[in-house]
Amino acid sequence: MDTLAPSRQRRKQARPAELTAAALELFVEKGFAATRLEDVAARAGVSKGTLYLYFDSKEALFKAVIQEGIVPVLEQGADLVDSYQGSSAELLRTLIREWWLRVGANHLGGVPKLMISEARNFPQLAAYYNDTVITRGRELLRRILLRGIGGGEFRAVDVETAIDVIFAPVLMLLIWRYSLGACGCGGHDPELYLHTHLDLALHGLVAREVRP
Amino acid sequence: MDTLAPSRQRRKQARPAELTAAALELFVEKGFAATRLEDVAARAGVSKGTLYLYFDSKEALFKAVIQEGIVPVLEQGADLVDSYQGSSAELLRTLIREWWLRVGANHLGGVPKLMISEARNFPQLAAYYNDTVITRGRELLRRILLRGIGGGEFRAVDVETAIDVIFAPVLMLLIWRYSLGACGCGGHDPELYLHTHLDLALHGLVAREVRP
Amino acid sequence: MDTLAPSRQRRKQARPAELTAAALELFVEKGFAATRLEDVAARAGVSKGTLYLYFDSKEALFKAVIQEGIVPVLEQGADLVDSYQGSSAELLRTLIREWWLRVGANHLGGVPKLMISEARNFPQLAAYYNDTVITRGRELLRRILLRGIGGGEFRAVDVETAIDVIFAPVLMLLIWRYSLGACGCGGHDPELYLHTHLDLALHGLVAREVRP
Amino acid sequence: MDTLAPSRQRRKQARPAELTAAALELFVEKGFAATRLEDVAARAGVSKGTLYLYFDSKEALFKAVIQEGIVPVLEQGADLVDSYQGSSAELLRTLIREWWLRVGANHLGGVPKLMISEARNFPQLAAYYNDTVITRGRELLRRILLRGIGGGEFRAVDVETAIDVIFAPVLMLLIWRYSLGACGCGGHDPELYLHTHLDLALHGLVAREVRP
DNA sequence: CATGAATGAGTGTTCATTCAT
DNA sequence: AATGAATGAACACTCATTCAT
What residues of chain B, 108 to 127, have a C-beta less than 8 Å from chain A? Predict the structure, then answer.
């Protein structure tokens, strides 16, 4: 039975992921309200009714999309920070670049904009996202900043605030891409943008013997 | 009679502003698609039909909200940049603080998040916003950066990119407040946040090795 | 007072006619349901509210349009039939041509199509129209046919039916002009059409010594 | 089970025809603009939404009504003309009588009045009707007239004009029935009317002095 | 498991009608 | 008399959700 109809079995297992993948694409493209479940189903190659075999409602689907999309992202970052040997400036640079490569290359890149758009309509989900993603992401940056300040490499800025200040341009780069940037409203070469940001931020961070 | 039952004339004058004010609140609260025109009308104390005496469509109302809310702020900013006498660093600091006071203190602060959420579904609005707000806002920052670089006060960063990099944290402060921040997901003291950002950014910008 | 503000007086007198004239044009152009009272008022150069000083409702206006438009049309026809000296064939020809010139040149030409379109929604008005216009119009044709048959000029057709059979193409010419003809769906040169009709009808009517 | 609760399949097959039938009745009764889709659905025993499973819009429904109702009638007419063996006068007589039986005996008879009423407000429908119905109907009459003239049976009238002149009374018979005739404004026995018309028209058409 | 036909609540928009000025 | 701002009922159309097959 396992070998006789493997595709059916496999299908059954894979369905939810296929559905959330299709939903992610459409939610990112059109937003939650403007996405029709019929389109999600069509993109996943199933019928509208099938969606309801796996998700109780549009809202449940949305929650699944966010949850599935997010879990795998943050682990590597923690490994990097744990094991990095070079300067804290280099570590910050590397972390942000890695993150960009992992998320920016993907439909997942639309999630931050999606969460921002829908947070108020789904407060519990926002809380979940905050606990699961944002808090952990902040932790990574916190460790880098504390590492840098502790070693005398960075100035003693307000760490909790600096975390968000420093990450804000990176988020905006992504948010822009999935909102006005998608309407032909200009935009940036990510490379140049990230370079400029890191240049400015690290110039702002690093402690120098400027004035004697 | 003049004060108790405001004359038709006066009412007619005031209506559009009352309506856009009500609309701004609801658009910011619920988003464009989820806002019912009937609710906008009710909040302004009129009937649904009355809305259509002043605005041709929901989209036109949205446009008016943007137009009335944001354009005056940009004009003030332009005046400031035109007439400022002190250092470019101070000018940047002042512009951003002014902007924060004007926009962050009232419902207008929700507009950036609103535009980001709705841009892809209403490309004409996005184009309008881009032309009316973003382009002009960038121009202000461009002038400050060029002024600072030209006078040797700032390092020669890539201006077009730096504009957005520098403004990104300010935008994120607002976006956060109107999305996850509204769900009890933490957030920042704006004062401290802006202080930290300007501290970092100006540290990053100013050319320090000029003075031995 | 009569001389001091004559235009006001005259205006007051003329208003209803101006309004029904404007309404006739629009009813004929768009039909009853699709005509907006605001447009009627605008075309008459007054405000929407003014309409209601003269007519209780859209329906009342419609009734007035039909009644005013119709009364003056039929009198001349009766005079013609009363006094005509030539053959009955010539009389028929002349009556139809006259009617065409009087009605076809005018916005009144749209009334038959209008009545046909709205009769079922305004049955009392239809009855009025039937009594006032159709019955009298038939009477004219009846007299001509009886005159012709009585004099041996026409064959002894069924008079009551022939009346309508003979008038039908004339009506259709008008109805077409105000319906599909207005959509670029072809149509006829009225001259040729009427000529062909009269040619056929009189060929059909006149008694000839065909078969010995 | 098969007969009591008709299977989904069978239902699905029958639905469009049930819907167009209900729509035809209501369009004919109230006109296009005054017909509510909810009433159409109710008359067909379904909900409003179901209509949209089968027709994209009110206009599409209208188009389907025309299409399904009239086209088969024209095809029958074409078959008749193709295969008819007798005289052209008899053919004309037969065609018109057949047409009357097929169209005049059911709700389809209201379509000409419907088209006339709505043509100007829905030019695309008018164009569609013109192409689909009028042009083809004319073609049938054209062939009969040319056949008769070619064979010396009919006089050499202007064919293009005569087509419409000859069909006009038949149309008027229907138009009357569905407009003023429905308001108790008199009317004709169709048998007598058609007889009188054909009598007159064929008397007008046939070349009588051919046989001495 | 999977389908897709059916539902019906919901909303943007129009327009005849009213009435304070 | 005349205005035109305000009303609110009405309707086409959409789409999440259900359920018989």
Answer: 113, 115-121, 123, 126-127
